[in-house]
Backbone:
């Protein structure tokens, strides 16, 4: 009886979201569960937001329904995608707003190559400074998991962009996440942020276990803003590979295209689709798609 009620509830829930999220079935008629990935490094300026928004956009271009959840009070993911900062995540978690009230559509011109229509869709749960007060307003560690579970079967991938400063919100995101991507510069302080982030991931494992959740997977570590001509970068990359082995993905090079694209409010796929920067990022999108087995 209870399971019957539950299924009716689920069916109702999906019809509820469809008017906003579109009618198209997932590509290849896949019936795969939604995946949540999170970008973390407790050091600022290592490329978390850049990778989060581009991976989200790349997957949307390829045909997936993707939500980028901006969990940083700076609201940079929101801004990068041409949207205004708003308390989207705050409304969702604190005011219990429905998704259809907080989701914002990203205009394809911002992220898709000129003349190309994305096969999927890209939405944002925006952020602003109010995100900072989420942890003092919510007491349920599963708040993030419970809200985003509502999208299972409607959305293919959710990508969380996080702030460099650890908070209880990170803890709640850890409980909702399937896999983590760690961008890092090949520099001492970024490595410290990486180690701290790995420690916090480790600390959440017993809680996940207690609630029957699988181990929080490390999807990969992405060396960013890499300069092959800089000896210290080469040495540090070698150290990173010695410590983490196959978890280290191919390095992303320091390129001015990233700054140029953000100056005009576009992603590199749209601003410079044939650039080396765009090629570097497609390699990351390929790998994410493969790791998630989408
Ligand atoms: N491969 C790259 N080459 C050159 N510049 C880059 C590269 N990747 C990112 N950037 C630039 O570096 C800056 C910091 O990147 P980003 O905002 O993505 O870092 P972050 O880790 O999200 O920072 P924060 O911790 O403050 O949120 C941005 O101006 C971005 O355009
Ligand atoms: Mg950021």
Residues:
């Amino acid at each position: 009886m209870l399971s019957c009620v539950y299924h009716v509830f689920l069916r109702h829930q999906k019809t509820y979201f469809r008017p906003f999220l579109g009618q198209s079935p997932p590509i290849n008629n896949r019936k795969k569960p939604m995946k949540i990935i999170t970008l973390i490094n407790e050091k600022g300026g290592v490329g978390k937001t850049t990778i989060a928004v581009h991976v989200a956009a790349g997957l949307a271009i390829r045909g997936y329904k993707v939500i980028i959840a901006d969990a940083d009070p700076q609201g940079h993911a929101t801004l990068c995608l041409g949207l205004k900062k708003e308390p989207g995540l705050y409304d969702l978690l604190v005011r219990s707003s429905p998704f259809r009230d907080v989701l914002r559509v990203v205009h394809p011109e911002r992220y898709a190559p000129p003349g190309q229509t994305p096969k999927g869709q890209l939405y944002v749960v925006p952020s602003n400074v109010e995100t900072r007060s989420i942890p003092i307003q919510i007491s349920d560690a599963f708040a993030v998991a419970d809200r985003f579970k509502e999208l299972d079967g409607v959305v293919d991938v959710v990508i969380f962009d996080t702030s460099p400063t650890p908070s209880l919100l990170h803890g709640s995101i850890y409980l909702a996440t399937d896999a983590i991507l760690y961008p890092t510069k090949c520099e001492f302080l970024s490595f410290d942020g990486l180690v701290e982030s790995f420690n916090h991931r480790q600390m959440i494992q017993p809680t996940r276990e207690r609630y029957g959740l699988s181990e929080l997977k490390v999807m990969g570590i992405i060396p960013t803003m890499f300069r092959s001509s800089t000896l210290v970068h080469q040495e540090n990359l070698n150290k990173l590979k010695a410590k983490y082995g196959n978890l280290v993905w191919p390095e992303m090079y320091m390129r001015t295209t990233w700054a140029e694209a953000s100056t005009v409010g576009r992603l590199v796929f749209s601003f410079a689709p044939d650039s080396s920067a765009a090629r570097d990022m497609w390699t990351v999108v390929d790998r994410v798609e493969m790791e998630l087995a989408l």
Remarks:
- The CA atoms of residues 68 and 159 lie 5 Å apart.
